[in-house]
Design brief:
The protein is of the alpha+beta class. Helices cover 14% and strands 26% of the residues. The protein has 17 helices and 51 strands. The strands form 16 sheets. A six-stranded antiparallel β-sheet has the order 44-51-47-48-49-50. Strand 32 and strand 33 form a beta hairpin.
Amino acid sequence: MALVAAPAMLFCAASTHAAITFDSGPVRPVAMSPDGTKLFVVNTPNGTLEIFNITASGVTPAGRVPVGLDPVAVAVRNDSEVWVVNHLSDSVSVVSLTGVPRVTRTLLVGDEPRDIVFAGTSGQRAFITTAHRGQQLLDPSLANVPGAGDPKLTTASVGRADVWVFDPNALGSSVGGTPVRIMNFFADTPRALAVSPDKSTVYVAAFKSGNQTTIVPPDYLCPDFSRNPCVRKGITVPGGLPGPATNYEGKRAPDVGLIVKYDNVQRKWLDTLGRDWSKAVNFNLPDLDVFSVDANQLSQKTAVPHVGTTLFNMVVNPVNGKLYVSNTEAMNQLHFEGSGEYGGSTVQGQIAKTRITVVSGTTAQPRHLNKHLDYSKLSSHAGFDATAKNHSLSTPLEMVVSRDGKTLYVAAFGSSKVGVFDTATLENDAFNPRTQSARYITVGGGGPSGLVLDEARNRLYVTTRFDNAVKVIDLATRGQLASSAMPSPEPADIVAGRPMLYDANLTSANGESSCSSCHTFGDKDELAWDLGDPNGKVEKSPIPQNLIGPFNMKQFGISNLNGTGATDDFHPMKGPMTTQTLAGMTNSGAMHWRGDRSNGFFGVDGYIGDDDTMKRKAYGDNEAMNFKNFIVALGGLLGKATPPTGPTVEDVEIMNKFAAFQLQVQLPPNPVRALNNSLNASQERGRVIFMGPKNLDGSIRPFDGLPGLQPLRDLQGGGKTSFTCNDCHRIDAANGRFGTQGESNFEGETQILKVPQLRNMYSKVGMFGTKDLTIVRIAGAPFQGDQIRGFGFIHDGVIDTLFRFLNLFQFNDPLVQFEKMHKGKPTELEALFYMGSSFGRMGFPYFEWAAAPMQRDVEQFLLAVDTDLAPIVGQQVTYGPTTANAAGARVDLLKARAGAVFTSKILGGATKECDLVARAATPTGLVGYLYSPTAGNFRTAAGATVTDAQLRTSALTAGREVTYTCAVPGTGAQLAFGL
């Protein structure tokens, strides 16, 4: 096999700007050839497939093939072909190993593909997991493919887990290949796959599956933390919040929602006090986690519930056929962070339990790998065992099982270890971690993610993400035999900062949890957590408040805003809030739903340092300081020992490195928006409404003499009197605003909240069934039956759909407020007189039949809100003999978008939507070309130019295929030439 030189890929927008990374989670990063002579490794930051020769002394580089952006999984079809899953490119690269290793076909699949296996008769079908969304799902070429088409993002009870199935021997001539079927499963977005020993069964696992928790809205809780039943909105509920009613200072806590968990034995929704809240929950959560599929008939056979909350990888025991699933189980039903001394409970140190669940048939048996931990003894308590972390495993990813079925290896991504277990002992839950840990293998470099067991040589090959390398482990000695680094274009601060997100040994007391326990691979876990701290103090908010005026909150039924009644208070008992993504935080101002990290250890936003006399800074320009103020989570959540005098020098260094890394992690392109960056008719109508001129927050202007509406005039006060959606949820790409400009607002809720960003609304779909809420103009939905997740929109996840969100009172005609305050409709005279006045131009129309179509259009726009990157970024196509007729139009699209003007602050301002790179196979290797939209041709690193027509003509010869890729603007030269 010839050595193929390939360019490194540096995600750097320009030399004067920060780098851009996505930190896509590794899934199946390494595989071995059937003959045992080669190792194939996806190099995620480099966008390449690395090929190694396996030697007596270890591994040696043998080739490199550029694939798509952020490859995360690889599977070997046979000795001459390897398939690579490209997470950011929404594609699969079919790599031929015959002659010059190259991509011969690019398959286009659903959004964010993650895993791939081959199964079925003779292993001749490819199965690929993707989210149930993405532009490819709607491509006309798939019109006759079962499972393709509208993802129904606004429809209840629709599975959000897809598996694309291809026949490798019949990929078709369509632009991205024609799948045999797109299978859909009743779960959230999937990740892992596994295959039975006889290849007749494929196992499919949801990724962030949930744990049958949801939220009871504040409207359905008895007031004043009562322990006695009461009637709320027509139903009898068992009481109020569990309490305490104040923090340690004696300051009243806000009225917030309550997280409840379904008890499958009692068949009730229970809180931590054992009270039944079933009447307040409007749907079921069956919690289906793992599905088995007949690989030949392509039909679902079984669905296994209650495997885990976040499922990472799966493997089948080749002897007894049992399935092992690496996972974590979230403990979000528990209240509070901190010591628990005043509040009486805490989730500190037990955020998510590390597990391997054994699945046999439809029975799931979870095995806690860290059962030696005593969660009642925190790092600050007497009797805490500081050595416990030496026996812990964190973030379990890929597993392998020996041929005899007796030994299982698991890569512990957050522990720099590989766990080693006797499968019988694991299945029987008979292991003791304190003695079992003697068999664990310490892996240098950090972030072990992928495993290949080479029993012929008694070796284990381990990929390590933190140093981007392959380690060769001698199983006889459990020592490292060799290491081979892979090229990485990532800047030093990204490399140094990544472990701060994942390393449980460094950041926690017991070695089990890390920040990624909730922020899974820097994103979210699709849960809500009650992480207030009754031991905390009430702090002041420095955030500008986009209020309408001095409201009389009692008119909205709110007598204890923020608990204390002060609009600028951050009460430490903030109540349940959904996990937010850590991606794309640059230019978004203060962090957390309330922006409460604008005030903390590293300073108060708006000031240089913590001295009020120092020079004032523009608000929201200090995201790094806001992020570093999360330092309290090291002790409060992860249990890391913190002296009474405050954070240690080590803690400060952790947060400095963490911020430098995380603020360069960006959100992916929007998978709902069209690849040409256009909006469809509904989305465009919604955009017009969103931008104005209608006033959609329910604020009013003075109008003397309007009968019966004095309460509305009383609301006006001295603040702003008219808003569009865009006035609060600012969309301004030039300034990096995608839904927020950093201000707080009163939204008719019990706390003042920061206006949030809107770029990932499509990823929150899946909970349908909100009951009637005071702040929503329309009645609650009827019982909705089975759903796939328990949390939806707004800060606590209580709103099920964007349509219902758009029916919040502040987005609607002020007559809706009149109804709310007067508990009845206005008189006919009042309504007619009102509708003829200037008030009629504010908010969605008063009559629902007129408002609903507008709200549906805005909902469609919100699902398609752009990100800092155009939808075309990452998209690919391979032009070759079998795809020439279909691929031409896609190449034309990529060229057009490479010439289209795009504005992005993180990319340096005015730029193009993408940099278009072409990689052409030649008899001696691969040649990279960069497209010039101005000249209309491609150039080589040496400056020679070729036309697209010349590239296409060359690609018609077998073995000379050309793959076109739209790269992040500013990275094209690195991608094409390795500069």
